[in-house]
Design goal:
By secondary structure, the protein is of the alpha+beta class. It contains six helices and eight strands, in the order E-E-E-H-E-H-H-E-E-E-H-E-H-H. A hairpin with a 2-residue loop joins strand 2 and strand 3.
């Protein structure tokens, strides 16, 4: 698993809110078309023809496209940020969406994202701060992802339902003990409901 940071301001438009609300990230250069099934040489021709990109900028753009389409993988983590927070998400597959057009105000090169949590910028460690400060449109974290120290902010439960109440193991065991005792009740209905609850817990 890798960690990336992606800029969320494109063509002077801030896409942070849209990325978060619509569960995706994306990059510019929409007029190139779907990149997944086109050779890199075709990417270069499209960029030169449609965007009149110079040689020095062309290399950077090609690196960005290659990273977004091929280096990023389903299941990697991505960060975006605003002035106060960094937002971490689980990245999905690349797809091309030109249903709204291919003008520069649209983002057609996309990856779906499941947002897992947000982190105050002040809580990021030095290595992650360096990542989000990188000049590249997409930057890869060049350390083991464990060194990003995201665990306190991204738990396994946060990927499920926001605001879910966490129950400690001790409380769960007490509840199971109550259900087990209820199995011995003289009331048949209570015994049935207790048995059903225990079986449901065992399946979860």
């Amino acid at each position: 698993m890798n960690l990336f940071h992606i800029q969320s301001t494109l063509q002077e438009i801030n896409w942070t809110t849209s990325f978060l609300q619509n569960n995706f990230i994306g990059i510019g250069w929409p007029a190139t078309g779907d990149l997944e099934h086109e050779p890199a040489e075709e990417w270069k021709e499209q960029l030169v023809r449609r965007y009149r990109i110079g040689k020095m900028e062309l290399s950077d753009v090609l690196d960005t496209l290659h990273t977004f389409v091929y280096v990023m993988q389903d299941g990697d983590y991505v960060l975006i940020n605003d002035d106060e927070w960094a937002y971490v998400g689980d990245v999905g597959d690349y797809f091309y969406d030109d249903s709204n057009g291919t003008g520069e105000e649209y983002i057609c090169h996309r990856r779906g994202v499941t947002w897992l949590g947000r982190i105050p910028l002040a809580e990021l460690n030095v290595k992650v701060l360096a990542l989000i400060s990188h000049y590249s449109h997409i930057a890869k974290f060049e350390h083991p992802i464990s060194q990003a120290q995201l665990e306190p902010w991204v738990s396994s439960t946060s990927a499920k339902t926001e605001g879910a109440v966490r129950v400690d193991e001790g409380t769960i065991q007490e509840a199971l003990n109550v259900l087990i005792k209820a199995l011995q009740s003289e009331e048949e209905d209570l015994r049935i409901r207790a048995a059903a609850a225990i079986l449901q817990y065992a399946k979860s």
